[in-house]
Design brief:
It is a single chain. The protein has a domain of about 70 residues. It has four helices and four strands; from the N terminus they run H-H-H-E-E-E-H-E.
């Protein structure tokens, strides 16, 4: 009985550690890394992952496509892997961990 209790305790401990790592984004192979919901944290994350070079553009969009109000005259929209998968699979809603980064440009591409 004592061995069963110890084994159960170890399994619960390992599973809780796995869940904690998932929440903190430590085990992000193929998984979304959760980012703190603040502008500064999100911008730091975008720079760190080099979104404009490593992420795909929104499906069906190209760089500097014509924008509409209230966005810029020209737009480029990038999506992380989590968002891209949901868009491609026509999920209807983007799941937690999805990030869409929209760059706004003036007519002279600045």
């Amino acid at each position: 009985m004592k061995k069963l209790f110890i084994l159960l305790f170890v399994l619960v401990f390992l599973f809780s550690g796995f869940l904690w790592a998932q929440v903190k984004g430590k085990m992000s192979k193929g998984k979304a890394t959760m980012v703190e919901a603040s502008g500064a944290s999100l911008w730091d994350h975008l720079k760190k992952v080099d979104y404009s070079n490593k992420w795909k553009m929104w499906p069906g969009k190209t760089a500097l496509y014509k924008g509409t109000e209230p966005h810029g005259a020209l737009l480029t929209t990038y999506v992380n892997g989590t968002a891209l998968k949901a868009i491609q699979e026509k999920k209807g809603m983007l799941p937690a961990g999805s990030i869409v980064a929209k760059e706004n440009y003036t007519p002279d591409k600045k």
